[in-house]
Amino acid sequence: MDSLFDDDVLDPLPVFFKLQTKDGKVLEMSLPALRLSTTLGDLLDCRAHDTPMDVPIQVQCVKWPMLSLIAQWCEHHKDEVTFKLTYEMSEWDRDFLDLDDGELFDLINCSYYLDIQGLMHIGCIQLCRMSEEEAKERRTYSLVDAKAVIELIKANELKYADMTGAV
Hints:
It is a single chain. The chain is mainly alpha-helical. The chain has one domain (about 5-165): Potassium Channel Kv1.1, Chain A. Helices cover about 55% and strands about 10% of the residues. Strand 1 and strand 2 form a beta hairpin. Helix 5 (about 100-115) runs antiparallel to helix 6 (about 115-140). The radius of gyration is 23 Å and the shape is elongated.
């Protein structure tokens, strides 16, 4: 039997569904955008048939700022039929992913939790690019990471102790 929420059975149903975040805020998302998330699609399919459509779908592991970003990405990509695994991304996606490290990690985690393959993929690509850029910068300016600095200091302390006879 077809799901009540299959696209071809959707005529009498609303175009947008409400989602409620962990922090209690509500946003709306179109069905095609919502379907980019396997988790949200499954939650929608599992709703009781007698549940009023204005009752929000609970998304308790995601806070408002991240769900809002995710909804923005999903709405932008809702008309894409398939997702191609590639290292390239559109200019819109590059601008969208211009986030600080913490936000990018949160976005990747939330896209993993909500099972949004396309968003998780480009988030990881962006993370790789940021790491590559940081590595280039470190090589350019002869910078090393904190762990390497600590190891170098310890090695120099041991050398100094050996040279002076102090232990």
